[in-house]
Amino acid sequence: MILRRRVWLIAIAGLATAFAAGAGAANFHGFSSTDFNGEMLPASALRAMTADAMAKTKPHNGHTYVFGFANLERDIPFGVRVEQGIRANAEAAGIHLVVADNRLDGPTALANAQSFVRRNVDFAIEFQTDVNFGPTIMRQFDDAKIPVIAIDIPMPGATFFGANNPRSGFMGGSYLGEAAIAKLGAAKVASGYLVVGDLPQSGAIPAMRTGGEVAGFTAVVPGMPPSHVIKIDTKNTMQYSFQQMSNVLSRIPPSVPILITAINDQATLGMLRAVYEAHRQGDAIAVGMGADEAPQLAKEKQFVASVGYFPERYGNYLIPMALMELAGHRLPPAVLVHHVMVTQGNVCHFYPKVPCGGAAGFTYHFPEKAFVAYLASLRRDPTLAGYEKLIPTQ
Questions:
Q1: Cross-strand bridge partners of residue 193
Q2: Using CA atoms, how far apart are residues 389 and 232, in angstroms rounded to an integer?
Q3: Hey, where are the domains in the chain?
Q4: What secondary structure does DSSP assign to 218-248, as a single string?
Q5: Please, what's the largest Cα pairwise distance for the chain?
Q6: Quick one: which of 126, 28, 27, 24 has its CA closest to 332?
């Protein structure tokens, strides 16, 4: 157990990184958005944060802060873990938390935002998937002068917290390429098909994740024909991913490698289910995103790894960040998660209740030079105009 905890702390150290020089660098009762190990702070520190925030910004009801959290979807593992972390921190800080379920739906997210405004919450944390509804939702909060942190999908004027999309995508794609080559050989992998589960409704920032998956894979497997790279819309769900992958399989010849990755673990597993249904699991290798389906990662032979996001720790950042802003400290425009590869061989070090499997059989090497070139291409991408502050430097 001591060894596992040491590995965990090494991997998690510096869980989030911020950019915008000097912004948010102040230490606020043990929390800094630029240098924090991700451990939940003591209740005494969280209560002190609340006291400082109230001295600067009085609660709307005159006595207790009320925060609104609109979850992406409350019955998927990632959303469950994010919510649990936010609840624990809010309770420790003496904050009343109002939770809503956005149900992966823009109109529902807008209705929830309007409900938070009517409730006159002091702060809102938004986790909503439809980028087209972001400006409308933010107008509700801006008009009511309610500050907002947006998780994973940016909204104009809100502080962004979430994935380092380019890096996590590049990690997952390059790991998939290296794992496939180790198992099948470079020539066979180059003749295969890369199928990427996308999420167009969430816009340009999450697209850097799936774009990174393709860029990372092709950095390792440069000989794959562009026509062998297939993107499908997952709608962020296992069921829709299963349906779309079932349609795609008829386009992939028998006995050809099927290399799978996606926007999250649920989509990855839905795509794998379609492969199993077609009895083609012998052709498939998959890498997920999130590592929030750790039990499945441990037991499914074809699901070899997932990029760790550690959603259970999001609340350890989000509540201190909100209180920091209410206390008058300026936050950076974006705080990004630090990612690690979670594999069948090391999953027990991050999630001790999940058993580890065998070693990968190869040593993963992150293709740093190719990643730097990918970042440079993003800065030239016209579809990312206006999002420059959300493109990481590393």
A1: 258
A2: 28
A3: 21-163+311-332, 165-308+341-390
A4: HHH-TTS-GGGEEEEE-TTSHHHHHHHHHHH
A5: 68
A6: 24
The owner of tokens 């990662």 is 297
Q: Would you put residue 144 in left (φ > 0), alpha (ψ -120 to 50) or beta? A: alpha
pLDDT per residue over 64-105, tens digit each? Answer: 999 999 999 999 999 999 999 999 999 999 999 999 999 999
Sign of CA dihedral 177, 178, 181, 184: negative
Kindly report, residue by residue over 279-338, the tens digit of the pLDDT: 999 999 999 999 999 999 999 999 999 999 999 999 999 999 999 999 999 999 999 988
- pTM of the complete model: 0.91
With tokens 């802003």, the residue in question is 325
Helix (H) or strand (E) holding 48: helix 43-56
pLDDT at 344 over 70: yes
Residue 127 near residue 71 (C-beta atoms within 8 A) = yes
Helices (H), 278-336: 294-299, 314-326
Residue whose C-alpha is closest to residue 335's, from 313, 319, 310, 317: 317
CATH superfamily of 165-308+341-390: Response regulator (3.40.50.2300)
Is the pLDDT assigned to residue 264 strictly greater than 70? yes
Count of positions (residues) in the chain: 394
CA distance 159 to 326: 13
Name the CATH superfamily, with its identifier, for domain 21-163+311-332: Response regulator (3.40.50.2300)
> Edge-to-edge strands of the sheet including 193-198?
229-233, 193-198, 258-262, 284-290, 303-308, 340-343
